[in-house]
Design brief:
Strand content of chain A: 15-25%
Radius of gyration of chain A: 19 Å
Largest sheet of chain A: 5 strands, mixed
Largest interface: A-B, 45 and 39 residues
Number of strands of chain A: 9
Strand order of the largest sheet of chain A: 2-1-3-8-9
Helix content of chain A: 25-40%
Radius of gyration of chain B: 15 Å
Distance between the termini of chain A: 21 Å
Largest sheet of chain B: 5 strands, mixed, barrel
Order of helices and strands of chain B: EHEHEEEHEHEHEHEH
Order of helices and strands of chain A: HHHEHEEHEHEHHEEEE
Shape of chain B: globular
Number of helices of chain A: 8
Oligomer: heterodimer
Number of helices of chain B: 7
Structural class of chain B: alpha/beta
Chain lengths: 286, 183
């Protein structure tokens, strides 16, 4: 198996995520352009021009190329599972030089920067196992400005789902222009503290405009979109109709004494790209 | 109103700018994030190797690429300004800043300093890194790159028609952000 070639594939995956937005996000931003006016429209206009320019010139759309974050679904019959982690880490180093990416990983104590976007636990990789022999890797580079607006609420179960909604709306109003709206908001409800946040982040993998399959949850997503957009925060917090492009909710069963709510915020640069690696080593960036 | 300004500009020009105006700037700007603010405030003014009062202050941690001819901007949108709130009033006073470019807005201390020292805060579209890089014509200098690293170093950019910047906090006490918070 040609591991160098697979590494090239992962570099291409990272480059795609950093330089091209998925069609569902662009479509949603174009809709926002139609409904906005004045300063808000000017912001969306700059965003759309920026997206085109980044794609044409092959340069990262945002200088904050993020913490390299990957969700990997490993087919249990893939023959070289043990090689995958090193492949991804090496690809991150290579992409840092080649794309290039901003060196974003610093030691929390010494502030030392490895200058290659790796370090303890970074790149951050979530592993899942699936049937079959293919490996699917989703790249989700996560910027600092939006990540800083993440929230965990350990609510009292007595406040119920209405309390969850109020918590999310209040937090997004407090975040205002900081996470680079219009954002995509991922919400995890239930589980425990860590699982709620994880579900929130994982829900960002869902394309913009796709609702949760559960009708009750889908209705809650729609209600939250409306309530947050009614706040008038608007693109970049300068006022307008579009504060969020979408709200995604995922749930887990919870302890009867706990009602954890994790909020993961993604800026308008809702960067996502996916690739598949087949068992013979061939790959495609989708 | 829309303004196209050649930097530096005087207080008379800054006073004309009102919340909601659109501005494009040409001339020299310098980048500074938290660590650069902190470091520059600790230093003697005579040890600052450039004149900040001649430039606009840009809250930005750019993605740069070194070439054989020097440095090239790859992507350089604004960073979140609220992190600099704890330094900014002193920074404006000490270095005679009169145009700040950032994103997300700033707090009460900066709002007061903008009025006292006749300065404006303008918002550039967050994440518009490729678009911003396209308006940078030259990178004449970088300071403290080894100590601070690429995002935190102070980069001097020569820009042309850099914008659109929205005047979101003016020198008369106006603030788009405060008005929106009040609902």
């Amino acid at each position: 198996m040609n591991f160098e070639d697979i590494k090239k594939g992962v570099v291409q995956l990272i480059k795609k995520a950093e330089t091209e937005l998925p069609d569902d996000v662009i479509k949603s931003l174009k809709n926002a352009y139609k409904v906005e006016e004045g300063v808000a429209k000017a912001q969306i206009d700059a965003i759309l021009k920026n997206i085109d320019l980044a794609k044409e010139s092959g340069r990262p759309m945002c200088q904050d190329t993020g913490i390299q974050t990957f969700f990997v679904e490993v087919g249990v019959d893939f023959p070289h599972i043990s090689k995958l982690k090193d492949l991804i880490v090496d690809a991150v180093k290579k992409a840092t030089m080649e794309v290039p990416l901003r060196p974003n990983t610093v030691d929390p104590f010494t502030c030392e920067n490895h200058k290659d976007n790796t370090g303890e636990h970074i790149p951050y990789i979530t592993w899942d196992f699936v049937d079959g022999s293919d490996v699917f890797i989703t790249s989700l580079p996560k910027g600092g400005g939006s990540e800083n607006m993440s929230k965990l609420g350990m609510l009292k179960p007595g406040v119920g789902i209405e309390g969850v909604k109020d918590f999310v709306v209040d937090e997004m109003i407090k975040a205002a222009g900081n996470p680079c709206p219009p954002t995509v908001v991922g919400i995890g409800i239930g589980g425990g503290a860590d699982l709620a946040l994880k579900l929130g982040k994982r829900s960002l993998l869902r394309p913009v405009g796709v609702r949760n399959k559960d009708k009750t949850i889908a209705a809650m997503e729609e209600e939250l979109i409306k309530r947050i957009n009614d706040s008038g925060i608007g693109p970049m917090g300068l006022g307008g109709k579009t504060t969020v492009l979408d709200v995604h909710i995922e749930v887990a069963h919870r302890h009867p004494a706990s009602l954890p709510v994790g909020i993961a915020v993604q800026c308008w640069a809702d960067r996502r790209a996916r690739m598949v690696i087949h068992s013979d080593g061939s790959w495609e960036v989708e | 109103m829309e303004y196209h300004l050649d930097l530096p500009v005087g207080s008379d020009v800054i006073k004309k700018l009102r919340v909601g105006d659109i501005v494009y700037v040409s001339g020299m700007i310098f980048t500074a994030r938290d660590e650069a603010h902190h470091m520059m405030l600790e230093k003697d003014k005579k040890d600052i190797p450039f004149d900040p009062s001649e430039m606009a202050l840009y809250h930005c941690g750019p993605l740069m690429k070194e070439t054989k001819d020097g440095w090239e901007v790859v992507s350089a949108g604004p960073t979140t300004s609220s992190r600099m709130e704890i330094f900014e009033d002193k920074f404006i006073e000490r270095f005679g800043i009169n145009i700040i470019i950032g994103k997300g807005g700033m707090g009460e201390r900066t709002e007061k300093a903008l009025q006292k020292y006749i300065c404006v805060y303008t918002s550039y579209t967050g994440g518009a890194g490729a678009l911003a890089a396209d308006k940078v014509e030259d990178v004449p200098a970088v300071y403290w790159l080894d100590e601070l690293g690429m995002p935190e170093a102070v980069w001097i950019f020569e820009v042309k028609e850099f914008g659109p910047l929205v005047v979101s906090m003016d020198s008369h006490g106006g603030s788009i952000y405060r008005d929106l918070k009040k609902g």
